[in-house]
Design a protein that fits this description.
The structure is a single chain. It contains 13 helices and 8 strands. The strands form 3 sheets. Strands 1-6-7-8 form a 4-stranded antiparallel β-sheet. It has a two-stranded parallel sheet with strand order 2-3. A hairpin with a 2-residue loop joins strand 7 and strand 8. The protein starts with a helix and ends with a strand.
C-alpha cells in the first residue's frame, strides 16, 4: 500500500531537483552573459578613450599650428582669444568621428575664486534685485571653512534644520553642486554664468553681465568692451576703454582700476578643450578634457581629466 506514495514522492523529488537545476543553469547562463557584456562594455569604453585621446592630440596640433603661424607674439595672443573660431574647420572635419568643444576660462565667473563682492555684482547684473546679496552670502558660506553664517547667508544649522545636505566647507567640485546651495535650486540663468574653471575674467570672451562682476565696471563700460572687441578685435585695454564711456562710468573704473586689472585679463588664461566619441549599443559618450594654456606661440597642458 505504501509503494504508490513512495513512487509519487520520488517523482516529486526528481521534478524538484530538475527545476532547481534548470534555475541554476539559467542563472549561470545569465551570469555568463552579464560577464561577457561587461567585458564588451569595458573594451568599448577603452577604445573610445583612445579614440578621444587621438582626437584631442589632433585638435591640440591644429591649435599649435594656428598659433605658430602668427607673425608676432601679439598676433598669437589675438588668435588665442578666438581660437575656437579659428579651429572651426578642424571641428567640422572631425565631426564624423568625434566631437570637439572649446570653452575659454574667464568667459564665466569662477565660483571658487570670485570674491563675495564679484558674486554680488554678477547677481545684480542678472537683475536678481534684493536676492543678489543673499545669494552671494550663501555661496561664500558654502565654500568657506567655518560654520558661522554671514548676515544673509546660510550655514550647517540652516541646512540640517531644513533637511538639506550641509555645506562641505570647501571649494565647489562641479558647478552642478551649486544646485545644493540655498537659493539656487532652480536658477539655471545664474548657473550658466558661473564656472569651476579657474581664471580671471576674459575681456575678449565674457558676456556683459560677467564683465560687470569686475570691480568698477558698470553696464556702460561692459557694453563698450563688447562693442570694441566686436568692431576692432585685438587686445583690449581697460585704460583705453575708459575714454569711450560716460564720465560717471569712467570715474567708477578709475576708482577701482587696480582691482579691475587684477580681476581681468585681455586674453583667456586657458581654454578648456573637450574631445568626445560615442560608442556601443546603447551608446555611451567617452571623452577627455584638458586645460590648455598658452606659452608664447605654443600651448601646454595644465590639467587632464575625463569628461562625462
Amino acid at each position: 500500500m505504501n509503494r504508490p506514495c513512495r513512487s509519487g514522492f520520488a517523482m516529486l523529488t526528481t521534478l524538484w531537483v530538475m527545476s532547481v537545476a534548470s534555475v541554476l543553469a539559467a542563472a549561470a547562463a545569465l551570469s555568463g552573459r552579464l560577464a561577457v557584456n561587461a567585458a564588451r562594455n569595458r573594451i568599448t569604453i577603452e577604445r573610445g578613450e583612445w579614440e578621444a585621446r587621438g582626437c584631442m592630440a589632433r585638435a591640440r596640433a591644429a591649435i599649435d599650428e594656428d598659433l605658430a603661424s602668427a607673425s608676432s607674439v601679439d598676433e598669437a595672443a589675438i588668435r588665442w582669444t578666438s581660437i575656437d573660431r579659428d579651429l572651426r574647420p578642424f571641428v567640422d572635419s572631425a565631426a564624423s568621428t568625434c566631437s570637439v568643444f572649446l570653452d575659454p576660462a574667464g568667459a564665466r565667473l569662477d565660483v571658487n575664486g570670485a570674491t563675495r563682492e564679484s558674486l554680488a555684482r554678477l547677481f545684480s547684473a542678472l537683475d536678481l534685485g534684493e536676492r543678489a546679496e543673499s545669494l552671494a552670502d550663501a555661496v561664500a558660506d558654502w565654500r568657506d571653512s567655518d560654520d558661522v553664517a554671514r548676515p544673509l547667508g546660510a550655514e550647517r544649522d540652516w541646512y540640517l534644520d531644513n533637511g538639506r545636505q550641509p555645506p562641505p566647507d570647501t571649494a565647489f567640485a562641479d558647478i552642478r553642486e551649486l544646485r545644493l546651495v540655498r537659493g539656487f535650486e532652480a536658477d539655471s540663468l545664474v548657473v550658466s554664468d558661473l564656472s569651476t574653471d579657474a581664471g580671471r575674467i576674459s575681456l575678449a570672451n565674457a558676456s556683459i553681465e560677467v564683465l560687470m562682476s569686475i570691480p568698477g565696471i558698470t553696464r556702460e563700460t561692459a557694453m563698450a568692451i563688447v562693442a570694441a572687441r566686436e568692431q576692432h578685435g585685438g587686445l583690449l585695454d581697460l585704460a583705453s576703454i575708459g575714454s569711450s564711456v560716460p564720465e560717471f562710468a569712467a570715474e567708477s573704473l578709475r576708482d577701482r582700476f587696480p582691482d579691475a586689472v587684477r580681476a581681468s585679463t585681455s586674453t583667456p588664461d586657458a581654454w578648456i578643450v573637450t574631445a568626445a566619441v560615442e560608442r556601443g549599443l546603447p551608446q555611451v559618450s567617452v571623452g577627455i578634457r584638458i586645460r590648455l594654456v598658452r606659452v608664447g606661440s605654443r600651448t601646454m597642458v595644465a590639467r587632464v581629466w575625463s569628461s562625462e
